[in-house]
Amino acid sequence: MSTSKPITTRAAMTSAIGTVAGLLAALALMVGFFSWQSEYFFSADTFVTIANDIPAVAVTAVGMTFVLIIAGIDLSVGSTMALAAAVAGIAMLQWHWSLLPATLLAMLVGLAVGAINGAITVAWRLPSFIVTLGMLEMARGAAYVATDSRTQYIGGAIDWLGKPVVAGLSPAFFIAIAIVALAQVVLTRTVFGRSMIGIGTNEEAMRLAGVDPRPVKIAVFAIAGLLAGLGGVFLSSRLEAADPNAGTGAELVVIASVVIGGTSLMGGRGSVASTFFGVLVISVLEAGLAQIGASEPTKRIITGFVIIIAVVLDTLRERRKKK
Amino acid sequence: MTDAVSPVLLQGRGIGKTYATPVLSGVDFDLHAGEVLALTGENGAGKSTLSKIVAGLVAPTHGTLTLAGEPFAPASRQDAERRGVRMVMQELSLVPTLSVAENLLLGRLPHRLGFIRREALDEAAARQMALIGLDEIDPRLPVGALGVGYQQMVEIARSLVGECRLLILDEPTATLTSRETRHLFHQIELLKARGVAVVYISHRLDELQQVADRVMVLRDGRHIDTRPMRDLTQADIVRRMVGRDVHEGLDRDVRPRGRRALAVRGLARGSAVRDVSFDLHAGEVLGLAGLVGSGRTELLRLIVGADRKDSGEVMLGDSQTPAKIGSPVLAVRAGIGFVTEDRKSQGLLLPQPIRVNATLANLGAVSRAGWLQRAREQAEVERLRELLHVRSDSIEQPVAELSGGNQQKVIFARWLHRDSDVLLLDEPTRGVDIGARADIYAQMDKLAAAGKALLMVSSDLRELMSQCDRIGVMSAGRLVRIFERGEWTEQLLLEAAFSAYAAVDKNNFQEQTA
Q1: May I ask the CATH architecture of the domain B258-335+421-514?
Q2: For site-directed labelling of A182, which of A274, A314, B132, B294 has its Cα 20 to 30 A away?
Q3: Nearest-CA residue of chain A relative to B348?
Q4: pLDDT in tens, A232-289
Q5: What ipTM, to 2 d.p.?
Q6: Residue among B162, B154, B182 at smallest CA distance from B93
Q7: Which of B232, B258, B228 is closest to B3 using CA atoms?
């Protein structure tokens, strides 16, 4: 019996690698297409630009991956980004804080927003869809209040995060990569990660096995908020400003990235590593379409189409595996 | 009923099915109109594959079927049903939010201009339920409000709506008590008289002997033997199934009873559980018998805090102070493990591997400071897998791919890993084949010998009589009597189970399900 063990382990590995391989193939295809269409696309500049563009969405998508794995959803991350960035901006402009404490404060604001999302969801057993939809409005409103409804120019003090340090890549990019790696390890190697997967798969079974799902769920939403807070600061560093409209609609891009990465909206299945590739797919697509001169409406139509195709392919792959 | 007289309704020749490996090969059989053919064999013997082929759920890779002289190759379940071949699955396919009547007549709801004719619907449903002796169920109740046992009866009643020439019943009595079982058997007799052929799949051999005319035994996907039921004893059948004798002795020594592990005092919840008190001791297996709806599962759920109690206390060990068990999470922490009746929805993480399922209740033992220790987890699960004879490719195999018996062993592995002092087992051998049952019984013996206290709910009296040191009988929410080994007979247990229903049966039922 135990002799057949490597076979199944390999099968499980193949499945995880399959998602990433599919995403890599899609990326290669897109890079090939855009390089063919535009002589400027295939250059170090393009890739550095993309790399420095993704940190905000990437770190937020890490948190969203966790939320989706526990079969929840967080619609408030875009607003949370704006609110956290607004608070960081105020800290830097009015209280003259330096970047690091201001960033930590922004993360703390995100953490609080996420914890509230989680606590309400758990306490009254509400669908997180509704709770975070409410929070989407509240956090956005709070961001307006904090910025006095004006874009607060921060300037050079914050752009360090987004400025190239090594090979054209920004600190934000390296931080995002580190967070993706750390979150993947947390998901696969810790009791917390195991609990998330279990709760997303069968919450009642977890409860009866003696694992209290409530603290795990609150923690997951809090982490999602914290990472959205960090994402907000990354966004600010690109804009060099705290804009109360920043991150509008970001929740949809983030959810799309996570789902393209093969994480199930039904919970229980997902990977942070492939979420990262999902983020890449969307940003390469957007950068490429911009380069070949696609109009904004065309970009949106194509992006939406790609999201649906990606999920259809992933679903078909899962179904075939089950047969 | 003699085989020679009645015409052949369904004929199978060389039926085979191959997935990655052959699961069924070269099966020949004849099924006559008006007979009950018992289909038996261990899980994985090919019973369900064969019956799914007949019901149109699975296409055979080899062989041909002939129904009443015409070729029969159903492309789908609906296709088979159009030709009068129906199957009642083990998994219930009812819509819990719809009423009993709506479920029964789903797809053929009486309506006028698209509006459902409620009276006609309820009337037709009541007639249908009365057919299998279930006239006490209000057809307007939502199915979700019924217990699993009644839901199963609704499922069977549904399959009898419309034309039916061949009915396949897969473990139909798994959740039924003897009263419903008798109703069902009566209905089967009526069907036979109408010339309907019945394929009856069950692990309960005494039932097969009661209900079947002939018995067909499969082993490892091959046809072993088909004979008139009266020619075979239970031991004969079992020998053909497993190729060895399984001794299921009803006699056993009473296990030495240790100190008190759990005391229940005056536990009550509505009319489901009324003023229940008993002690459970280390080293014993206490059985809980009773009819469906008598409050056995509800009692277990109260003990672990899954439902809120109205009154009463649970004390742990020798303690005189009531334990605060407000949720299953706290129950597990207090050393009470709960093996639920419905392992798929309340026990297992189906897509996850054996390894993940087995360590779920005690992740602390395979982690340090929150970090899982892979090697340690693998070693421990590997040990449990061997100890419990979990038939599987490896500990990485998703439990969804295992047979019912092996899934149940994984749940046992979970609680062995947790090492709880008290184990509550709700129908632990439901849908489990004889070989795996023996493994589970052996584990229960070991657990009891190791000083664990076991409380086991079962609808199978023989199982309780063979495994338990004491049997408590619940009736209409009350624990009416606890029998010591030696005091009980099947007759006495049954009488006790019916005792509290005597006068108020119907009202009581309505109250419980409303």
Answers
A1: 3-Layer(aba) Sandwich (3.40)
A2: A314
A3: A205
A4: 999 999 989 999 999 999 999 999 999 999 898 889 999 999 999 999 999 999 999 9
A5: 0.87
A6: B154
A7: B228
